[in-house]
């Protein structure tokens, strides 16, 4: 391993700086049947931190709380050097209606439990794991703002929220001087690009940094699946319904393009797919999950790779989604081109300078 993780990036419009890859801890613990042992998990954290990494992501629901306990143990003696993120909202008890969601009751209890499991008195980034569809945004916002003022939370992010709720949150925060969202965690990869329609422009508008999960689409973009072999024997999750549902004709077309670039550059499928994601404008730090140190080393080394314009164009062409709206709802740069005879623009909304073709 020659590449390091200590070229830090600003997280949205906050003053927080994080590594270009975030270490995901969902695989820490064996309760779900496919994770890493505690010893292996601790070794992975050591390798990540030794390489300059400072951003670790977990959740209260991961491996029934074991992930948080392992992360807390791994950070003993070096807690303040790491940006620690965890999440809450998913229901941890099917019998208690208040054991999930983003209500004041649940979030207050969930945060305190997470802090105890991790052996710390604060979390750097607290994610709302999902919007529960019931709790008003102002209740959730006031709850986390109180926790920020109490010193239990430093920054707030959202995961899997509808874009309308992201916008509502940011407007309320601006109007009332409350804690804004600085980061967003959604699935984003060459196979899953739906957030580009409305979420990504909103992130750019409100200064929200992306910390995407699923950069390899649950391993599909690693190249282990082929049209001829959709259930390889060397993976523990190959038969999962969600994974198998991703193996569409479009997915294999994307894999063909990734594979061609991988062969041309001498890189792996995973490195090519991860590099495409890292180079997206609002992406700050993709979350990478590993069960071995070797997997982590391979992904860290991908930081030395940059895709050529030709390679990016090929991946864009094969993975692009159909526009969901008629042309009059397109972003401003596309409207300019239609109405002004091919005017060349900086891709909206990441810039506004325009020059004639």
Automatic annotation (TrEMBL):
The keyword Calcium does not apply. Residues 20-318 form the NADP-dependent oxidoreductase domain. Keywords: Oxidoreductase. InterPro entries: AKR, AKR_Detox_Biosynth, Aldo/ket_reductase_CS, NAD(P)_OxRdtase_dom_sf, NADP_OxRdtase_dom. SUPFAM superfamilies: NAD(P)-linked oxidoreductase. The keyword Oxidoreductase applies. Gene3D superfamilies: NADP-dependent oxidoreductase domain. This is Aldo/keto reductase. It comes from Pendulispora albinea.
């Amino acid at each position: 391993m020659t590449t390091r993780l200590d070229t830090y990036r600003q997280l949205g419009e906050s003053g927080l700086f994080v590594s270009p890859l975030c270490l995901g801890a969902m695989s820490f613990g064996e309760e779900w049947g496919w994770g890493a042992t505690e010893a292996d998990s601790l070794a992975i954290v050591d390798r990540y931190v030794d390489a300059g990494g400072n951003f670790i992501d977990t959740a209260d629901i991961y491996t029934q709380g074991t992930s948080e306990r392992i992360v807390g143990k791994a950070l003993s003696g070096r807690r303040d050097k790491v940006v620690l993120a965890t999440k809450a909202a998913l229901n941890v008890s099917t019998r208690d209606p208040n054991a999930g969601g983003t209500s004041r009751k649940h979030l207050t209890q969930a945060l305190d439990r997470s802090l105890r499991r991790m052996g710390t008195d604060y979390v750097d980034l607290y994610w709302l794991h999902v919007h529960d569809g019931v709790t008003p945004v102002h209740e959730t916002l006031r709850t986390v703002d109180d926790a920020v003022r109490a010193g239990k939370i430093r920054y707030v992010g959202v995961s899997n929220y509808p874009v309308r709720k992201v916008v509502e949150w940011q407007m309320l925060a601006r109007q009332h001087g409350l804690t804004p969202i600085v980061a967003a965690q959604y699935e984003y990869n060459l196979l899953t690009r739906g957030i580009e329609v409305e979420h990504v422009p909103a992130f750019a508008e409100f200064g929200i940094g992306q910390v995407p999960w699923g950069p390899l689409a649950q391993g599909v973009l690693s190249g282990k699946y082929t049209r001829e072999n959709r259930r390889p024997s060397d993976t523990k999750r190959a038969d999962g319904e969600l994974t198998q549902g991703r193996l569409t004709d479009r997915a294999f077309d994307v894999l063909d393009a990734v594979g061609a670039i991988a062969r041309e550059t001498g890189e792996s499928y995973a490195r090519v797919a991860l590099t495409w994601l890292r180079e997206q404008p609002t992406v700050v730090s993709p979350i990478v999950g590993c069960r071995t140190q070797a997997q982590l080393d391979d992904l860290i080394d991908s930081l030395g790779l940059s895709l050529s314009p030709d390679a990016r164009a090929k991946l864009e062409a094969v993975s692009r989604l159909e526009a969901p709206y008629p042309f009059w709802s397109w972003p401003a740069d596309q409207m300019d081109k239609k109405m002004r005879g091919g005017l060349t623009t900086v891709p909206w909304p990441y810039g506004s300078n325009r020059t004639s073709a």
